[in-house]
Amino acid sequence: IGWTGLMSSALSGWLQTAAQKVVRPSDAAVIFASQPLVAAALSWILLGENLDIQAGIGGLFIVGAAVWSSTGSPEIKEGEKAEAKTK
Fold first, then answer.
1. pTM, full prediction
2. Integer Cα distance of 24 and 27 in angstroms
3. What is the C-alpha to C-alpha distance for residues 27 and 84, in angstroms, rounded to an integer?
4. What's the distance, CA 32 to chain centroid?
5. Cα separation of 27 and 8, whole Å?
6. Using alpha carbons only, what angle is made at residue 64 by residues 61 and 68, rounded to the nearest 5 degrees?
């Protein structure tokens, strides 16, 4: 219980907060959106889990959404630049 409380909750929350200060919002969104994909890949590699076609399609949706969101419209990128200048 102590390991879960300290490492999984407290440390990961602190690292997330610290990293979000230096990473653009769009990049942070891509990283957080890819978390289920990384978890599935690690369970396949480390635990030998079987991934079915639904998992593959879901992974493609996640990757597609991450790529789509990171290449956002110029208006969004200009808004991020303006937001960064005000900080």
1. 0.55
2. 5
3. 14
4. 2
5. 22
6. 135
